[in-house]
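quick q for whoever's on today - can somebody do inverse folding on this one?? i tried earlier but teh output was garbage lol. tokens:
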């Protein structure tokens, strides 16, 4: 009788350990998924992303003057753009995007690195973990729009990287006059003082060889609209104004007259996508960051 009781107790203990192990494994898996998606819940029960500087894809090629390095976060922010070696152009990962409707001030969602609002947790497609190409898909928390970013593998020869962005209407009604912006706080070289200029298609910051500022490298960084058939505009902005407010909108105003004197700057390209975006319809545009 005692043997029977002992055997039953042993079997019960084994069962508890097995069930506990499975539960712990499931909990770890759920935590891993939650962490990779950087998600929490808002008051309405929807998923809202937490600000993140997690590197999701990175690239590096060459060395010294020929070096080119790019890092992108799991939210689709350009965290690092370095060329030549040791010359970081992105200030503290403060680069990103804003998706707007109407006049460009009714923000559907924005994320510029250390501040964001109204975007849900990201979903990924990445054939090689940690590498490019990288696809990041996010929905606005109101369930109206989906934004998909496809970051191509950076070009080591041209020293540039392209991101293709697709806006899709996932609501049950037409949405009008969408604006999609990319902008960021950039410092070229070793000083925050850069000159800025723009054309109708590109905006850039650079250090002129004749400038009085002390720099170890005289170069530049350019942001370009590649979808020339879609209406688009470029802007150079004061860095402090961008950081304080305009980073959260798509069309902040006229910007600074260019070319500028050497000062602390931000730069932006935005696309106007006028008219109706019907249910299930999508529109795609491309941006490119490059060394100059």
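ok took a stab at it. sequence:
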């Amino acid at each position: 009788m005692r043997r029977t009781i002992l055997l039953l107790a042993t079997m019960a203990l084994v069962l508890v350990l097995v069930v506990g192990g499975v539960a712990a494994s499931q909990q770890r898996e759920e935590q891993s998924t939650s962490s990779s998606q950087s998600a929490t819940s808002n008051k309405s029960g929807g998923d809202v992303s937490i600000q993140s500087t997690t590197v999701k894809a990175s690239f590096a090629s060459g060395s010294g003057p020929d070096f080119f390095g790019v890092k992108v976060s799991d939210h689709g922010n350009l965290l690092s753009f370095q060329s030549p070696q040791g010359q970081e152009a992105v200030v503290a990962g403060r680069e990103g995007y804003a998706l707007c409707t109407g006049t460009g001030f009714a923000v559907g969602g924005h994320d510029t690195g250390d501040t964001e609002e109204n975007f849900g947790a990201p979903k990924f497609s990445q054939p090689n973990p940690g590498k490019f190409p990288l696809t990041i898909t996010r929905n606005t928390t109101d369930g109206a729009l989906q934004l998909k970013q496809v970051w191509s593998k950076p070009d080591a020869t041209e020293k540039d990287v392209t991101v293709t962005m697709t806006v899709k209407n996932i609501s049950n009604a037409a949405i009008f006059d969408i604006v999609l912006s990319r902008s960021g706080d950039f410092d070229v070289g070793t000083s925050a003082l850069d000159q800025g200029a723009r054309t109708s298609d590109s905006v850039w910051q650079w250090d002129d060889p004749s400038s009085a500022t002390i720099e170890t490298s005289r170069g530049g960084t350019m942001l370009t609209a590649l979808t020339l058939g879609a209406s688009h505009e470029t802007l150079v902005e004061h860095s402090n104004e961008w950081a304080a407010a305009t980073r959260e909108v798509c069309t902040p105003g006229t910007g600074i007259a260019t070319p500028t004197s050497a000062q602390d700057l931000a730069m932006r390209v935005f696309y106007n996508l006028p008219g109706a975006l019907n249910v299930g319809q999508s529109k795609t545009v491309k941006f490119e960051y490059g060394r100059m």
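fwiw Confidence is low (pLDDT under 50) at residues 1-49. also DSSP finds two helices and 19 strands in the chain. so keep that in mind when u check it
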